[in-house]
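Troubleshooting log. The previous run stalled partway through. Resubmitting the same two chains, unchanged.
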Amino acid sequence: MKAENEAGKILEPISNIDRLIHEPSRLTIMAHLYVVESADFLFLIRQTGMTWGNLSVHISKLEAAGYLEVKKEFLGKKPHTVVSLTNKGRSAFKAYRKGMKEVLDGTKDSILE
Amino acid sequence: MNSDIETRKIKRKVYMTFFQDGLWDIFLGLFLLAWGLTVWFDLPWLPGGIFVGFFWMVFGLKKMITYPRIGHANTTEQRSRTLTIAIAGVVVLVAVVFLLPVVAKGEVQFLRNYFEFLFGSMIAIAVALIGYWWRIYRWYLYAGMIFLFFVFNQWSELSFNLSFIMSGWLITLCGLNILYRFLRRYPIVPEEDNYESRK
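Second attempt completed without errors. Output:
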């Protein structure tokens, strides 16, 4: 019983992890946008290795959650989409990093013990 | 095990993508070539003209060549470092403009005796500093090469301008090679693959 409680305590931070960000593709997008002010679609494609369609789907999900701002413009006759993290997205990513660190550090300590 | 998501590494990766095209290497090579031609043909306006003209041309070429291939991201770090380089370049040019008349008059004998060596060292240090600020470590090699050319020049019978021309030419070739590999690695995305244009 005591062991179960301890395991529960260690794994408690997992329940606070943002599942929307936790998906690997979306995590990659968020991490890349976190280190820049804004980036266009092509830049994200090159950096993440995703396809146009795949990237678009994930960006739509993150935009719907209010984590991203998507601006559509035209460069000459070509459409150009610029994506940036909103303040909410930036805070959510920071919280995600902190949460994951807590989870992994807790797991590491328990394994070493 | 590192339990943190290393944004520093991602930041560096993102930052380095803008130096994959070799355009700044070509800029440096042409700038040195311009110095060589200045000494050769006595065209004092050429380095300043090349610096200002090519500095803006690099940005234009980036829009034409680089961004359609790898996209574009705005980073505060890149902007501030580019500004630093522009200011450093202007300071070096102004310093050289003031240094040359002093050397020409021969008021300081030491400067006159070791002019090639000192001038080359100054350029090599400037190139190494740019490499450090921009974190493009191949520029350390360029700095070393420039320094060696000028050391050789100081104690040999070779003409002063050859150090500039040789090092400038080699750096331009390196830059062109980097640009060639960049163009092969990142072709322009065909219109039909462009998801945005299908929307």
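Takeaways: The first helix of chain A runs from residue 2 to 15. The domain at 19-98 of chain A is CATH 1.10.10.10 (Arc Repressor Mutant, subunit A).
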